Amino acid sequence: ACNASKLKSLQRVVKTADKIIRTPLPPIQEIAKVRCMKRSTNINSDPSHPLHGLVSLSLSDRRFQSLKSRNSRLRNSL
């Protein structure tokens, strides 16, 4: 998990790389969002994955819903 200061420093690195290669790069938040969605989709499509039945797709807004758990170890595994 990244806090605001880590995201800011990573965004500064992206901005520097953007200047060096002279090509626009997506922001860190967008990259993290895409990676999270891809990981959730892979978990949901693989029946042998341990979290397969625990992560479901919401019907109303097409978002992934994680499971309700009492401890953070299982909740943070995704």
Description:
This protein is mostly helical. It has one domain (4-75). The protein is built from 3 helices and 2 strands; from the N terminus they run ααββα. The protein has a two-stranded antiparallel ribbon with strand order 1-2. The longest helix has 18 residues, at 4-21. The mean pLDDT is 78.
User: What is the average per-residue confidence, as pLDDT, rounded to a whole number?
Assistant: 78
| Low-pLDDT residue intervals, each spanning 5 or more residues | none
- Radius of gyration from the CA trace? 16 Å
Ends: how far apart? 11 Å
The shape is elongated
Order of secondary-structure elements: HHEEH
Jot down its keywords.
2 strands; 51% helix; two-stranded antiparallel sheet; 5% strand; 78 residues; mainly alpha
List the helices and strands and how they pair.
Elements: H1 4-21, H2 28-45, E1 56-57, E2 64-65, H3 72-75
In brief:
The chain has 78 residues and is mostly helical.
